[in-house]
Write a structure and sequence with these properties.
By secondary structure, the chain is an alpha/beta fold. The protein has five helices and five strands; from the N terminus they run βαβαβαβαβα. Strand 3, helix 3 and strand 4 form a beta-alpha-beta unit. Helix 3 packs parallel to helix 4. The longest helix is centred in the C-terminal third of the chain and has 17 residues. The two termini are 23 Å apart. 30% of the residues are buried.
């Protein structure tokens, strides 16, 4: 029996947190955080298989800054990060990839596509 992968959802909107948990809980072990402070607490407390990162967050750092920071650490250099954001301009996408995300999704996203994207990224990382 395969264990479910550990997913860290970084999302500051409570309603979005609830929706994402409901959509993904049958496929992942889910933890949720809403800011840079709680992100680092969670990240260091467990080994995550993948991160779903919102770009806009409350506090002093956004999801792109967090992504760029953890990409500097050898421990997290290969941690899959999927950006999920309402920011849909090409420059937002370009900036996300520059910060180190593996994939970029815009809200609203269809639940089937979200799940397929997360699984595809996980499969690619495990093949490396």
């Amino acid at each position: 029996m395969n264990e479910k992968p550990n997913l860290l959802i970084v999302e500051d909107d409570l309603e979005n947190q609830k929706v994402l948990r409901a959509l993904l809980r049958n496929h992942f072990n889910i933890d949720i955080c809403d800011s840079a402070v709680t992100f680092y607490e969670k990240l260091h407390s467990k080994n995550y298989d993948i991160v779903l990162m919102d770009i806009s967050l409350h506090g002093t750092k956004d999801g792109l800054q967090l992504t760029a920071e953890i990409r500097q650490s050898p421990k997290y250099a290969d941690l899959p990060i999927v950006a999920l954001t309402a920011h849909a301009f090409q420059r937002d996408k370009d900036n996300a990839y520059k910060s180190g995300v593996d994939f970029f999704l815009t809200k609203p996203v269809q639940s089937k596509y979200l799940l397929e994207s997360l699984n595809t990224i996980l499969e690619k990382k495990h093949k490396k």
